[in-house]
Structures are given as C-alpha cells and as structure tokens.
Amino acid sequence: MNFALGSIVLALIWAAITASFTLLNLILGWAIAFMALWLIRKNLASPVLFSKARKIVALGALFFYELALSAIRVAFLVLMPNMKAQLKPGFIAFPLTAKSDGEITLLANLITLTPGTLSVDVSKDKKVLYVHALSVTDKEALIKSIADGFESKIIEVFK
Amino acid sequence: MSSVEFLNLAGTISFGILSLAFFLTIIRIIIGPSLPDRVIALDLLVYIGISYIAVVVIYTGYFLYLDIAIALGLVGFLATVAFARFILHRGKADEPVKKSDKETNS
Amino acid sequence: MIVTIFQYFAGFLMLLGSAFCLLAAVGILRLPDIYTRMHAASKAGTMGTGLLLTAIAFVAFDGAIILRAIAAFVFLLLTAPVAAHLLARAAFLTGHKPTEMTIINELDIKKLDK
C-alpha cells in the first residue's frame, strides 16, 4: 500500500521534473520509482498515510506561516539602526520528546526555518537538541513554544 | 501602466536590487574574518544566482532556464556540504593544525 | 483578465523576493558573528529565492513549468536548513567562538558526537 502510493507519487514528480505528461513518460517514471523503492524496501515506514493527510497539511500550513514570519522578523532586525542592542543571541539546550531519527531530523529542519532559531547539533544520546536563537529574552517560553508547536504536531503525524 | 510594462519594470528593478545584494555578499566574502563566514556568504551567493535566473526567466520568457536554476541549487547545496566537511577536517579555528589534531580528526 | 492580474501579482512577488535577497545580504554584512549571520542567510535568502520561483509559477500558464517551479521551491526548502545546520555544527566543532554578546551558552562540546 505504502509501496504503491510512494511509486505513484515518485512517478508524478518524475513527470514534473522532465516536463512531459505523456503516458509513456509516466510509465517510465513509475518503473524507475518502483526500482528505487525496491532498493530501500526494508526501510519503508508503516502504511498509514491517508489518515494522516489532514495533520500533514496542517503541519505544512504552520510551517509556511512561520517561515514567512521568520523572514520578515529577520528583515526588520537587520534594518534597525540599533540592531546590536536588540540582539541577544544564545545557545539553548532543547530537551527532545521526539524519539526516532526521522522525527528529530524533521524537527531540526523545521526549527531552522522558523523565527529566530537555528538548530546546531544533537547530543550523543539523542535526548537534547542544541538550538541557536537570535534573541533569548525568555528561555523557558521559547522552549515551550517549540515543544507545543512543531514537536507535538510532528509526534502526532508520526504516531 | 499595462501589466506587461509593469512586469518589465519590476524585472529591471529586481535586476538592480539583486546586483546590489550580490555586491554586498562579495564584500563579506572578501573581508570575512574566518572560513565559515566566507562559506555562508558563498551559500547566499548561490541563492542570489538562482534568484537572478528566476528573474531572467520572467524577463525573457525562456522557461528553459528554470532547469539551470534547479541544477544550480543542487550544485550549491553539494558545495556547501563539501565545504562543511572541509571545515570539520581542517582543524581548529585559531591555532594552526597540529599533528595530534590531524590524527584525531581524520 | 486573469492573465493581467497574475502578471501584476508576479511583478509584485519579484520585487518582494529581490528585496528579501538584498536584506539577507545586508544581514550577512551587518550581523556580528557566524551563527547570527546564518540566520539571515538561511531564512531571508530562502524566502527571497522562493518568492521569485513562485513568481515564475504565476506567469507560466503551463502545468509542467508550474510544477517544476514548485519542485525547485520544495527542493530549496529541503536543502537550505540542512546546509545551515551542517555549517553551524562544523563551525562550532572547530572552535569558532560566538560573539561576546551571546548571553547564554548551554552547548557543551563534550556532549557532542564528533
């Protein structure tokens, strides 16, 4: 089920990249997708994707909103004449609730593109994610906003 | 002003703004005190290059250039990854690479 | 009619996108250290380039090209944070000090996996 869906999605991406939607090209793309998925067949996740579609869309919407917000905030910060006074950079240890590698990767990528934060590294035991923030006025509030926002949504999607 | 005229004007202005951005980034590449600074600036330079190509696509109407933008994005990402590996293996920030460092890092 | 509206909108997106690119460049020039500069490059840069690619999708009127512009945008969104994260990690592990304005530093080099 996951296999079929994945190969169809990959075939559509193939058609988009090669810019022709002829039947022959779609079949070629599907064949290549099938072979690519067959190579990684042991690592495919459990086949519940459709029921999660709404949550995935919600996560995507939240992500785009936060990306726009963060770009605007950085832009305003850069334009301020007294930028140095506004800047309170710092490294923060963010305790991870997410367990699997996939969740941590997604969380780190999303954190990097959201307001004022940039993930730097994960500790050896995968319990702590180190985050660099542009202005640390309230550390606890920042940690709480990440945990309640992205992390809880990601865990819901993966569960 | 018709929409095509506006599009052309916006393209011209965008070229100007992007050229200025290009220039500012190159200043950082020249003065950047450390290697990572320069690599970040190079990364941004690739993004500005992609933006240039995007404006060219709209300005001239040759949508074929979009492929070049995608390829440039790929190459730029790989270059940044390679630079990050290079920084990791090159040794410490301030002091020159010592023999013991070399052995532990490699 | 819809073509006219889309062209006006694409022009607006173009101006906005190049403005974000310029702000990213200004940020790279003005911010004090590597880690803060990375914020400007990864966020404002991605946003600017993404807006310009979106502008292409608005003027193309061809399904294949629109999809390819969107694919380029998604590819950019996937790679930009990875590049920024790798660079920040490499810079920290090789001992590049953050600026003196840094008010809190919980990052311990001993706990990291080299």
How many domains comprise the coordinates of chain A? 2
- Main pleated sheet of chain C: none
Helix content of chain C: over 70%
- The coarse silhouette of chain A is elongated
Strand order of the largest sheet of chain A: 1-3-2
What's the helix-strand series of chain A? HHHHEHEEH
In percent, how helical is the residue content of chain A? 55-70%
Query: Compute the gyration radius of chain C: what is it?
Result: 18 Å
Order of helical and strand elements of chain C: HHHE
- Largest chain interface and its two residue counts? B-C, 55 and 56 residues
Query: In this structure, how is the largest beta sheet of chain A organized?
Result: 3 strands, antiparallel
The low-pLDDT segments of chain A are none
Task: Compute the number of structural domains of chain C.
Answer: 1
Mean pLDDT of chain C comes to: 83
- Taken as a percent bin, the fraction of beta residues of chain C is under 5%
Mean pLDDT of chain A: 78
Sheet/helix structural class of chain A: mainly alpha
**Termini Cα gap of chain A:** 18 Å
What does this structure look like?
The complex is a heterotrimer of chains A (159), B (106) and C (114). Chain A is mainly alpha-helical. Chain A is built from six helices and three strands. In chain A, α1 crosses α2, α3 runs antiparallel to α6 (139-158) and α5 crosses α6. The mean pLDDT of chain A is 78. With 106 residues, chain B is mainly α. Chain B has a single domain (3-105), classed as Helix Hairpins (Orthogonal Bundle). Chain B contains four helices and no strands. Chain B has helices spanning 3-31, 35-60, 65-90, 99-105. The termini of chain B are far apart. Mean pLDDT of chain B is 83; it is low at 96-106. Chain C is an all-alpha fold and 114 residues long. Chain C is elongated, with a radius of gyration of 18 Å. The termini of chain C are far apart. The mean pLDDT of chain C is 83. Classes of the chains: A mainly alpha (159), B mainly alpha (106), C mainly alpha (114). Chains B and C meet through α1, α2 and α3 of B and α1, α2 and α3 of C.
